[in-house]
Amino acid sequence: MDVEEQRPFPIPNNVKRFGLKNSIQTNFGDDYVFQIIPKDDWSSMAVSLSTNAVKLYSPVMGQYYGECKGHTATINQILFSGHSNPNILSSCSSDGTIRTWDTRTFQQVSIINAGPSQEIFSFSIGGPSGNLVAAGCDSQVLLWDWRNNKQIACLEDSHVDDVTQVHFIPEERGKLISASVDGLVCIFDTTGDINDDDHLESVINVGTSIAKVGFFGESYQKLWCLTHIETLGIWDWKEGRNEVNFSDTRTLASESWNLDHVSSFLPI
């Protein structure tokens, strides 16, 4: 169902107002920031830039730690590995590679190459045993075993346009969701020998080009879906059921925000 345009929320008198505490200048050139992610313990944060580099800083003091360089095209996603490998940072790029970096030395420690004609728009690490790397490419979902960088599957029949998002589902690591410019969300089972025919479990048709997806709820059964035309939909991915749609999300967010106009946001 569509949600009617809402009036601005009243701002209570006791609302805490936030001010700028610190700022970081990443460069003195024309570069700009694509993504910022913190480590789990917030001891550092990684910043991907339009210079095809990733820089690391202290989120508290703003101290510059170092730079990871190697990509030759736009970096589309960066991701810390988490508690199991806290010093490992991974990145994917339109140069067709997923690169892994040691944030203590800022050196590349491994690389997965999808091929010179491929762009990688998104990646995710998971699978039943936690050893799979999935990548969203040009109408394909590719999977590798990160232990030996061997490609184990190419899912090429489920999407007909760029795959903008891939995510292994939290607490169901054998399930993989992909989303595409073709407006489809596909749910795959990644156990056994993976292929389109036997492992595509269900498809959700959002109806327009998909930019970002994510999970929430106690069992992560809810899927939020942000489109390129700035609509937001909430789905029950297990049931394939659309629960609510929000149109013109940027305007709604701006009306509920008492500072500058919202230029970018991410549902959380």
Explain this structure:
InterPro entries: WD40/YVTN_repeat-like_dom_sf (IPR015943), WD40_repeat_CS (IPR019775), WD40_repeat_dom_sf (IPR036322), WD40_rpt (IPR001680), WDR89 (IPR039328). WD repeats lie at residues 68-111. The protein has 268 residues and is mainly beta. The chain has a domain at 121-255: Methylamine Dehydrogenase, Chain H, CATH 2.130.10.10. The chain is 4% helix and 45% strand. It contains two helices and 20 strands. The chain is globular. It starts with 32 loop residues before the first strand and ends in a 13-residue tail after the last helix.
Corresponding CATH superfamily of the domain at 121-255: YVTN repeat-like/Quinoprotein amine dehydrogenase
Named at the architecture level, the CATH assignment of the domain at 121-255 is 7 Propeller
Structural class call reads mainly beta
Assign the CATH topology of the domain at 121-255: Methylamine Dehydrogenase, Chain H
Query: What integer is the average pLDDT?
Result: 87
Fraction of helical residues? under 10%
- Number of distinct beta strands: 20
Strand content: 35-45%
Low-confidence stretches: 1-9
WD repeats: 68-111
Keywords: Repeat, WD repeat
Protein name: Transducin/WD40 repeat protein
InterPro entries: WD40/YVTN_repeat-like_dom_sf, WD40_repeat_CS, WD40_repeat_dom_sf, WD40_rpt, WDR89
